[in-house]
Amino acid sequence: AQSVTQLDSQVPVFEEAPVELRCNYSSSVSVYLFWYVQYPNQGLQLLLKYLSGSTLVESINGFEAEFNKSQTSFHLRKPSVHISDTAEYFCAVSEVSGGYQKVTFGTGTKLQVIP
Amino acid sequence: DAMVIQNPRYQVTQFGKPVTLSCSQTLNHNVMYWYQQKSSQAPKLLFHYYDKDFNNEADTPDNFQSRRPNTSFCFLDIRSPGLGDAAMYLCATHTGAGEQYFGPGTRLTVT
């Protein structure tokens, strides 16, 4: 069985400050890792993903995450946040099983950017 | 262009009155998922389809049913909604790269 832990339920941060949203996972097999973002009353949007290869992955809007296998972590970072980054962020893990991906989501971290 | 479409975006139903939520996808993927998301919680998988094969999660209540008449469309039927079924319902499919692609969701209110 796989699980995802997001230690922080809410993270307030001032605009233009750096932020790190933490994610740890556990699984008995190799996994894919994802970060999704959800704005109010909307569905989840994929922010970035780790499938294989380089352990540092980046999004088009300045977020990055690093896969650390020894620490079973996939923390999300941004060096300078904007008001528009205010949203809820979900870390997720999946393993390929029988042709579909069973995805396990973390409980989410609400990022509140303060002007 | 929207690739996973959910209608309606907001649905109000009465306690015990059956309701159907719809989802369609233009990606032509063979797997579709339905999730329930309550306020400030992670999405919870209700079931998924692999082509026409229906797969129910063990803890999904019998009150929830689904239909997939073709590759593009998938419906969620709630036979007798209770107050505890008020939530955001998310439909998703997945790409070959491993990620899931979500629709915008339908927010269900039960009065």
What features would you describe in this structure?
The complex is a heterodimer of chains A (115) and B (111). Chain A has strands spanning 3-5, 10-14, 19-21, 24-26, 32-38, 44-50, 56-58, 64-68, 73-78, 87-97, 100-105, 109-114. Chain A has 115 residues and is an all-beta fold. Chain A has one domain: Immunoglobulins (Immunoglobulin-like). Chain B has 111 residues and is mainly beta. Chain B has one domain (4-102): Immunoglobulin-like (Sandwich). Chain B has strands at 4-7, 10-13, 19-25, 31-37, 44-50, 53-56, 64-67, 73-78, 87-94, 100-102, 106-110. In chain B, strand 9 and strand 10 (100-102) form a beta hairpin. Chains A and B meet through strand 5, strand 6, strand 10 and strand 11 of A and strand 5, strand 9 and strand 10 of B.
> Looking at this structure, what is the CATH superfamily of chain A?
Immunoglobulins
Order of helices and strands of chain B: EEEEEEEEEEE
What is the fold named in CATH at topology level of chain A? Immunoglobulin-like
Kindly state the number of beta strands of chain B. 11
Count of β-strands of chain A: 12
Brief rundown of the structure:
The complex is a heterodimer of chains A (115) and B (111). By secondary structure, chain A is mainly beta.
Fold blueprint:
The complex is a heterodimer of chains A (115) and B (111).
Chain A (H helix, E strand, L loop, with lengths): L2 E3 L4 E5 L4 E3 L2 E3 L5 E7 L5 E7 L5 E3 L5 E5 L4 E6 L8 E11 L2 E6 L3 E6 L1
Parallel strand pairs in A: 2-12
Antiparallel strand pairs in A: 1-4, 3-9, 5-6, 5-10, 7-8, 8-9, 10-11, 10-12
Chain B lengths: L3 E4 L2 E4 L5 E7 L5 E7 L6 E7 L2 E4 L7 E4 L5 E6 L8 E8 L5 E3 L3 E5 L1
List keywords for this structure.
heterodimer; A: 115 residues; mainly beta; Immunoglobulin-like; 4-stranded antiparallel β-sheet; B: 111 residues; 7-stranded mixed β-sheet; 11 strands
